[in-house]
Every structure is written in structure tokens, then in C-alpha cells.
Amino acid sequence: MRFLVIGAGKQGSACALDLLQVPAVEKVYLADRTFDHVPEFLAAYHANPRLELVQLDLEDQAAVRAAMAPVHGVLSAAPYYFNTALAALAIEGGAHFADLGGNTEIVFEQKKLHERAVARSVSVVPDCGVAPGMVNILAGEGIRRLDRTDSVKIYVGGLPQHPEPPLNYMVVYSLEGALDYYTTPAWILRGGKRTQVEALSEVEEIDFQGGGLGRLEAFHTGGGTSTMPFAYEGKVPVLEYKTLRYPGHAAIMRPIRDLGLLDTTPIAVNGGEKVSPRRLFIAAVSPRLTKPNGHDLVALRVDVRGSKGGKPAGTRWQMVDRYDEQRRVTAMMRTTGYSLAITGLMQVDGRVRGNGVLTPDEAVPAGPYVQELAKRGIKVSESAL
Predict the structure, then answer these.
(1) Are 53 and 35 in contact (CB under 8 A)?
(2) Would you give the DSSP letter of residue 346?
(3) Within 10 A of 311 (CB to CB), how many other CB atoms are there?
(4) What CATH number has the domain bearing residue 86?
(5) 307, 150 contact by CB (below 8 A)
(6) pLDDT tens string for the chain (385 positions)?
(7) Segments forming the whole domain that contains residue 62
């Protein structure tokens, strides 16, 4: 198997690292415009012929086609706005394609490529990280197990193992992305109907004692379920996604947002100079929230409830994954980058459910996927509700 991984940042590099652990993978091409930000954990592979760094401009379609030509699978950790064009080029070249996604409108654009992908016997799976991605696979499995589904509730958070006030938070991926989630309304299902709710709203406490975390808080944020609120409208009464943080986080972030400090529209200061409040906020807080030596964790819970054979039934999946001290790979990179790699491997070896453009809940069987996570030390427990 040969793979092209696009994007040599944290998630793409983690994806490449994972692929290099698989003996059946003979070559990994890691592509980016520059390579001055490749994480240290890939340094040991720089002289390894199985890993090749490819300088690539994603605006150059001819160059992208050439980079895709020798591979069986293309895995994108590039910014989401490239993914429709990249998926189309992969289909054209006959290579399977998966991405980390993060933008539901882009997924709907990719869905328009479905018939083209089927005709080329190509699998395209967008949104293959943790949320969206892992949670969709588990939720879809839970729904299929039931005769009637009453509710799907999903909780995910990337957190510091050793929280520090005032926010008890550290940057575990893009701070810009996190602030987008805090300011964008979330799509949920209520009464089987798709509706939007305000981000940072409906705060509740979640007991994560089983994962050694104690009590966390959860609140609505957008983007975590991809197209599921659209796909299951009228079929599932309640479907929602909430972000996990240490208690008190939302109470601080909500007034910061409501005062306009997370707005993106520039405002005039100092007699007319235009400044984006969000850019200023990121510049001020990012150095305080970036912990080069900090160790993170990712907590996840998916609860699916309903009935089977006329009796109440349901399943809970739970995971707490922690920073890999041996390889110096963060929990967010493990659960996100490795998830992308697993999806690509399952596409190429035929374990996904079919060709065409399918979301993770449609394409990826939960059993083999969870087994692959376990091989990497990412343990997802399952219990009946």
C-alpha cells in the first residue's frame, strides 16, 4: 500500500507516523508547501526510504495529480477549503480519499462527487478525525443496533492533564478553530427536527470518574457531528454534540464572546487603525495557553438510547486517551491523525462499506475501527445502557 498524506502539520505528521508502523505500507509521501514545522517524532524516519517528503503547492493541479499518481490512498490534513478539489482529483486518479474535514458545507459539496467516485470504484470519506469522525462511527453503530433510537448524545474534549487557571485549558489544536466553535451556532435534533442552538449554551455536568477525570462540564459547540443532524432528521428525536471542558470554562468564555472580543470584523482603535478583536485576543492569550511541555488528554463519550425488541436498550462508548510520552505525540494527534490513517487503511484494504462519497457513520464499520484503535493503545470501552 502506498499513501499520500497532505499536510505536514501536527495531524498530518501523526497520520504519516501511524502509517509507517504498518508493515503492509510500503511508501508514505508526506506533502506540504514547506517542512519547517514537521514534529520531532518524524525525525527518525527522515532517512527511511519508506517516507518521502514532497514539496507541493495545492493550487498547482498538475503537481497534485502527479503526487497522487503512484498511491492507493490520499489522506488530507490540509485546510478544509482544499478538500473538495482534492477529492475530485483523487477520484480522477483512481485513489481513495479521506480528510479531517471540519466544515459541513464542504462535505455537502463532496457528496456531489458520489456518482463519479462510484464509477471509478473509489471510496471518499470526509470528516475522519475525532469529532467529526470517531464519534460518528460509534453513533452510527449505536443507531443500527436499535429498533428505535430515542437519543444520541456525544461529548468530546481536548484538555490539559494538569489544568491551570483561569481557563483550565491549553491549545491542543488550532486556537482559531476552537474560537470558531465557541461563536458558531450548533445544529442539533430536537423532536426529530433540525434546529440551531447557541454555542456555549445548556451547560451540564458529566461524571468521568471511570476515566479518572471526575466531573467535567459540557456545552454546545458546532461542527462535531458533520451531516448527522441532516441525515437523521425525522428518524432520531434527539441528537446533539457537546464539548467537554473543566468546570467553569464556559462561564468565563461566554462573557468574553458576548463583549465582542471574539468577533472577526475589524474595529477602529487609536484614531482609526483597524484591528480584529479576535486576532488581538489570539495574540494576547495564545502564548499563555500554549504549553510546549504540557501533556494533554482527549475525553470522549457517545450515548445512544432507544429500544430493541420492545425493551429499553442502548450503548455507551467512552475513551480517555493521554499524551504518548515515549513518542512525544499528543493525545489530540493520536486520536485525530491516527483516526485518519486507520480510515485510509480500511479504504485501501476494502473494509469500508462501499465506494462513493460516504460519511464515517455510513462507511466505516465500528468493530474493525475500534480494534485498530486498540492496537495503537487507544482504548474505547463499551457498556450497555
Answers:
(1) yes
(2) H
(3) 7
(4) 3.40.50.720
(5) yes
(6) 999 999 999 999 999 999 999 999 999 999 999 998 889 999 889 889 999 999 999 999 999 999 999 999 999 999 999 999 999 999 999 999 999 998 999 999 999 999 999 999 999 999 999 999 999 999 999 999 999 999 999 999 999 999 999 999 999 878 888 899 999 999 999 999 999 999 999 999 999 876 679 999 999 998 899 999 999 999 999 999 999 999 999 999 999 999 999 999 999 998 888 999 999 999 999 999 999 889 999 999 999 999 999 999 999 999 999 999 999 999 999 999 999 999 999 999 999 999 999 999 999 999 999 999 999 999 999 999 9
(7) 2-129+332-384
Q: What is the CATH number of the domain that holds 240?
A: 3.30.360.10
Distance of CA 18 to the CA centre of its chain: 16
Same domain, 115 and 254: no
DSSP of 292-322, one letter per residue?
A: TT--EEEEEEEEEEEEETTEEEEEEEEEEEE
pTM above 0.90, yes or no: yes
Which of residues 328, 352, 372 is at a domain's end?
Answer: 328
Structure-block grid coordinates of residue 163: 489544568
Strands (E), 87-172: 96-99, 123-125, 148-160
Alpha helix ranges (H) inside 48-82: 61-68
